[in-house]
Amino acid sequence: MTYPKPSFNAAIPVIPVASPPAKPPLLPELGRHAKACVSVGAPPVLTLLVLLVAWQALVGDSYAGLPSPKQVWLESKDLILHPFYDNGGVDKGLFWHVFTSLKRVGIGFSISAVCGVLLGVFVGSNRWAHRGLDPIFQVLRTVPPLAWLPISLAAFHQANPSALFVIFITAIWPIIINTAVGVRNIPSDYVNVARVLRLSPVEYFFKILLPATTPYIFTGLRIGIGMSWLAIVASEMLLGGVGIGFFIWDQYNASRIADIIVALAWVGMTGFFLDRLVALIGHFVSRGNAVS
Amino acid sequence: MAKAYLSIENVGVTFAKGAVRSEVLTGIDLKIEKGEFVSIIGHSGCGKSTLLNVVAGLTPVTTGAVILDKQEVNAPGPDRAVVFQNHSLLPWLSVRENVALAVDKVFGGTKSGAERRDWTLHNLELVKMTHALDKRPSEISGGMKQRVGIARALAMEPKVLLLDEPFGALDALTRAHLQDSVMEIHAALRNTVLMITHDVDEATLLSDRIVMMTNGPRACVGQVMDVPLARPRDRLAVAEHPTYVHARAAVIEFLYARRAA
Question: Could you tell me if residue A162 is inside a domain?
Fold first, then answer.
């Protein structure tokens, strides 16, 4: 299983063809940086503007179904401008809703990361474990997050542990499967080096196995964190309380569609941020040696 | 009769994959004295590397035994350090760390931390790699990686140094440099070396003896030839030397003329 990497290669800085000779030497340098920034930042901003204009043109101000961007701004200005307010209860700014959801994801995902890597190492290094467990994992990983919710509610009887379990069970499969693939793909040369050096199993685990599988593990973690963010929003919709998922459901019941759109933007940007964060950690942990 | 330092006695290796059994090596007998440099040459797929892996302990024997310094080989160990064909340095460690991993493991109980650091540096000096101590394997050339691989093997102070086609993946000029380095190191340290190669010139230039293997399956030792050239050998000087020319011709004759029939 591989993960399509979004390509974030900075555009090649545009070199000015001929800088005017009258300018001091610092300015062309600054100009080049500015141009680089513009060439990276301008396309997404322009695309966004075009989409907003198209949206406005299609929906108009009639408010038959979806609000237009202009209406979103007018109706949800407070929500957009004040993400940090807190009036107690569930009447909080979006930052606090997202923060609560992130805490849940943080706990559930951490547990599944630890369990997933350990299980993945076990499945990857033991042929019979692989034969026995891999088919089961392959089936279970296709179960949608929300399908786990009734089972987890039946098991835990409480909203919070149920939400955590759903995150855990959603995120763990890609972590297990990718870790196992990584362990099975450790080059035999590294294994031979370990054998010639007579590394103990513990030394082998920390000095060969973990570093060699780090890129695979982080591929699994990236898929896992994305899926757990999908799961949290869905499960909070059903469970209630503070959290971005519940907020969206609450606003739907209050027919405040504009607020939902603002919340969607927060959900999307948070998911993007999580993905980049895990990728960044992976980059540093594998010391830039990522193979996949 | 006194036992040889490294003795390969009637070694046979059979791989079984399901019901299919393939006999790769059969009846290999070879005695190697301390300080000797022996090459094993043969066509691709004849089982040279399998033989080296048997000596390394990475591949178990089906019949026979390997005895090194009066002890039977039945598992891999640092007394039989291997320089692998594709360097097999760990890419997440720097040059220094790759060698230090071996030094710390082998001498963790006998040398102090400072002694181990010095020993690591000393071995990297032997292969002239001290200029790239903190580079990662991906940042240095193929020849340099192989030098580090040799340093890592030497640093284990092995009883026998096993070279598995160490220069096979290198260009001719780099290969010549590394061959000279290996000869210098061998002259200085007098290690016992067993080298796998398919390069006739390499075998003739470096070896005290050349072991020629027949084609597999069921490969065995076809012929063993001494190369009685004085050391140190200079590649330019020996190229015209009658002993060298004769030895080289004999190997080529064995590999191409006799096997073609």
Answer: yes
How many whole angstroms from its chain centre is CA B76? 15
pLDDT of the residue at A291: 44
Specify the DSSP class assigned to residue B43.
Answer: -
Dihedral sign of CA atoms A203, A205, A209, A214 in order? negative
Query: At residue B261, does pLDDT exceed 50?
Result: no
**CA dist B80 to A232, B191, B193, B261, Å?**
55, 11, 10, 37
Residue A131 at interface with chain B, using a CB cutoff of 8 Å: no
Q: How many folded domains does chain A comprise?
A: 1
B181 at A interface, C-beta within 8 A: no
- Its pTM stands at 0.79
Strand ranges across the sheet with B6-17:
B20-32, B6-17, B63-68, B71-72
CATH code for the domain in which residue A164 is found: 1.10.3720.10
> Is A189 within 8 Å of B88 when comparing Cβ atoms?
yes
Distance CA B35, CA B38 (A): 10
A186 close contact with B: CB closer than 8 A: no
A6 pLDDT more than 50: no
Give A-chain residues touching B159 at CB under 8 angstroms: none
Q: d(Cα A223, Cα A173) in Å, to the nearest integer?
A: 9
The answer to the question of residue A266 being in a domain is yes
What distance lies between CA B2 and its chain's CA centroid? 25
Average pLDDT of the segment spanning B202-211: 93
Q: Is residue A167 part of a domain?
A: yes
B contacts of A212 (beta carbons < 8 Å): 90, 92
Determine whether the interchain pair A196/B106 forms a contact, defined as Cβ–Cβ distance below 8 Å.
Answer: no
Is residue A115, in this structure, part of any structural domain at all? yes
Question: Is the Cβ pair A199, B82 closer than 8 Å?
Answer: no
Residues 258-287 of A with CB under 8 A from B: 286-287
Q: How confident is the model at residue A288 (pLDDT cuts 50, 70, 90)?
A: low
Q: Does B116 touch chain A (CB under 8 A)?
A: no
pLDDT at A216 over 80: yes
In this structure, how many other beta carbons lie within 10 angstroms of the beta carbon of residue A21? 5
| Residue-number span of the structural domain to which A125 is assigned | 94-285
Q: What number is the average pLDDT over the span A64-69?
A: 80
Query: How many C-beta neighbours within 10 Å does residue B170 have?
Result: 18
**Binary contact (A192, B82; C-beta < 8 A):** yes
Q: What is the pLDDT of residue A292?
A: 35
Q: Find residues 204-223 of chain A whose CB sits inside 8 Å of chain B.
A: 207-208, 211-212, 214
A157 inside 8 A of chain B by CB: no
